[in-house]
Amino acid sequence: MARQIDYGNLMHRALRSLIQEVLQDVADHGLPGAHHFFITFDTQHPDAKLADWLRDRYPQEMTVVMQHWFDNLVVDDEGFAITLNFGDMPEPLYIPFDAVRTFVDPSVEFGLRFETQESDDDDDEEDEDGDEAEDDDAPRQDAEVVRLDTWRK
Fold first, then answer.
1. How far apart, in whole angstroms, are the C-alpha atoms of residue 120 and residue 146?
2. Closest-CA residue to 84 (of 17, 38, 20)
3. To bridge 63 with a disulfide, which of 20, 27, 40, 97 should be the other Cys (CB 3.0-4.6 Å)?
4. pLDDT tens track of the chain, all 153 residues?
5. Distance between CA 146 and CA 11 in Å, rounded?
6. pTM across the whole model
7. Beta strands, E only, the chain
8. Contacts of range 27-32, beta carbons closer than 8 Å, 24 or more positions apart
9. Which residues contact 149 (CB under 8 A, 6 or more apart)?
10. Domains of the chain
11. What are the residues whose beta carbons fall under 8 Å from the beta carbon of 36, sequence distance 6 or more?
């Protein structure tokens, strides 16, 4: 098979890098103005670190808010550590960038949503004529380009 440019994966990495850069700026300088973030992440990701009671309460995904109070924000190439307050109980978290499902800054109507190949393709389409059987051995991608056919009339 001919070599192809994997635009979906490239876009996925670029958007994760954007999140990393934004969070590093917040770690260095604090949240500017009215900016605040809603970050939804996969609590089952093998590198996600959170208290057992939080994982029990949010067995699939969890949305955290970075706004008025947060502490110990440390950003690295793989994710970020942060301490957030849950009902007057500060809890440290580590959220890998690969576990992030949504990143939203409602103060400027900005948002990113990451979908996995599993949730998109397994439910939507079946291989109709079996021509792509050789692709079954290809590794799954973490992101894909949005199909415009959904909105066409």
1. 10
2. 38
3. 40
4. 688 998 888 888 899 999 999 999 999 999 999 999 999 999 999 999 999 999 999 999 999 999 988 999 999 999 999 999 988 889 999 999 999 999 999 999 999 998 764 544 444 444 444 444 444 444 444 544 445 555 555
5. 11
6. 0.72
7. 37-42, 61-66, 71-75, 79-85, 90-96, 100-105, 110-113
8. 27/73, 27/74, 27/75, 27/80, 31/66, 31/67
9. none
10. 7-116 (2.30.30.220)
11. 65, 66, 67, 105, 106, 107
Contact 20, 98 (CB under 8 A): no
**DSSP character at residue 86:** S
> How far apart (Å, rounded) are the C-alpha atoms in residues 101 and 41?
5
Contact assessment for residue 39 and residue 16, using Cβ atoms and an 8 Å cutoff: no
Residue carrying the six token digits 């939804």: 40
Residue 138 structure tokens? 């290809």
What pairing do the DSSP bridges indicate for beta strands 100-105 and 61-66?
unpaired
100's tokens: 């992030």
Retrieve residue 92's tokens.
């440290």
